[in-house]
Amino acid sequence: MENEWRGRLEEMVKADGRSLRAISQAAGYGENYLQQMLKDKKQPSFPRLARVLSVLGSGPALYVTTGMRLTPEALRFLRLALSLDEDSHKTIRGALDALEDRTSAPKSHHDQPE
User: Span 28-54, mean pLDDT?
Assistant: First the structure.
């Protein structure tokens, strides 16, 4: 379980299409850095791993570190949300809280199928 991130990283590297060498160099490391991390199971520091993940993009970075996949639509929403002013953030938070309350609230007797 501790190294599940490594399998996800390997999956994202394959999906990226560039070679291990190209990704390592794009992150500013030696050409064998990613190979050593994946094949030789060397443990990177988080800042070093973060630099590699930044080369792969935000979706792959989230997936590698958490195991969660975001749809392209969800990523667009997050990017949009990050660009909004504070009042807009509050409005969106309120709407999301209300939606979450509705979807997680226990159903009443009237909502139950007979």
Answer: 93
